[in-house]
Amino acid sequence: MTESQSPAPYARIRTTVLDCPDTLTLARFYQGLLGGRISGRSEQWTELHVEGAPHLSFQQAPGYKPPAWPDPDRSQQLHLDFDVEDIEAAERHALALGAVPLDVDDDGGARRFRVYADPAGHPFCLIRPA
Questions:
Q1: CA separation (Å) from 54 to 12, 27, 44?
Q2: CATH number at residue 104
């Protein structure tokens, strides 16, 4: 087997799980951003199914402390990247849903992405495709 080949997968991604204080609030935020259907709803767990993509799950975490991007003492753990056709319109929409800008200086259009936090503090990026 060469470096560019990989063995048959033993697993595949089912979901990405985000810890949060309120599962339904965060599921509704991402539903407003991505569309989709909310299911599996409870205080401890909620899922968002988006057609053509692995779904997102939201897990209640008592005592949840959000990341403090870009503070290395409270790292972001992970972040989500979303391609958008119109970054200005996507930004307005995300902010209206409750996103918080973290790093939105795109250097006059030279940088293709902007960074935000969702209502639970998880960083995510809106990215203009190349």
A1: 10, 14, 20
A2: 3.10.180.10
